[in-house]
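seq as requested:
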Amino acid sequence: MMNIFRISDFFVLMLLCQKIFAFTYTSKDGVKLDYTFRFKPSCRGEKDRIGILPGIALPECVKECGMRPNCGALNYKRRYNACYLYSSEENEGDRSKESCVEVKASDIEIIQKPPTCANCDQSDKTCIPSEQTCKHTECLQNKPPPNGKFLGNMKSIGDRIQYECDFGYKIVDGMEYAVCLSNGNWNVTAVDKCTKIDETNVALRKTTAMSGVWNNHSGEKGVDGNTIQDLSGRSCFLTSSVNRPWWRVDLGAIFGIVRVELYNNLDNCCNWMTKDLKLSFGTSLQSMDVVGSVSGRIDDIHTFNFTLALAIEARYVQVHLKGMGTLTLCEMEVLGFPIY
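C-alpha cells:
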C-alpha cells in the first residue's frame, strides 16, 4: 500500500476515477482492521474537526479514527503526511480545493484489539495500546456552555479554545478561554457563567440633530432624562413645520438595541401632531433602515420592542413623519447593550 502512495501517476489516476479501495492493516501494537478509502478532489475544512496528527502514514491515521469513539471520519493529506480527524461523517459544505484521501468511520472495521482495550468499549475513551490504557483524547462541543459558545476547532486534551458569551451577556470575573481537560470535558465552570447585561438608556444626553427647530424647543430636550409630557416641563422638542420632519440621536458608538420608548407631547396644543411615524436605525448615516412604524397618532408612551434575540445593532436612531407636519416628543429612551 505504501508503494501505491509513492507512484504519483497512479495516485492521479485513482483520483480522477474516484474508485474505492479496500485494505487490511495490522499495526505494531496489535490492532488489526479492514478499511476502505477513496480519493476526493477536495478536503474537509475546519468544521467538526477534533484533531490533527502530523507525520503519520494513512493506515495509522485510519487506526486512530477507528479506535476513537468520537471520530466520524478522517481526511489524509498525502503531501504533508497529515491526518485530520472529524466528529461527523458527512460535511460536503466546508471543503478546500486540495485533494485528499477520505475514510468514514463506518468504513473501518476493527477486527482485533489489544486486551488493554476491553474496557474502552463501555466508555467514550480511546484505547492507547502503547500505554496499555484507555483515556479521553478530545472534548466535543455537543453541549455549549450556558449563554455562550465555543469558537474555533481545537478539541484535543490540553487544547485551549476561545469562549464567547451570547449577545446581551458578558463574562464577569472569569476567563475568555476554556481548556479541554483530561476527563473529556471543557472547564466551563472555571470560565464562569455568562452574566446578563442590564440594558440601559444609551441615548441619555447624547448628541441630537433635527430638521428644524420651533421656538427654542431644541433637539437635546428629547434625551435630557426629563419625561414630563407637556410644554410646561420645558423638556419637549418641536420641529418646524416641514415635509417629512425628522429628529435623530447619535449614540456615539454602536449598541445592541432591544427597546425604544417614545414619550408623546400631551399638551393640548400638540398631542395630535406626532402621527404616521417611522423609526429608523443605522450603524452609519448611510445605512439607515426603517425598523418600526405607527399608523395614526402614537400612544402617550409608545414602545418598540426588539427582544434580546432580535436586538438590532445601531449608532443612530431617528424618527420622522410622513408628509407635511411638525414632529414633537418629550423624551426618547433607547434601551440597549454595549457591543463587546
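The longest strand covers residues 246-264.
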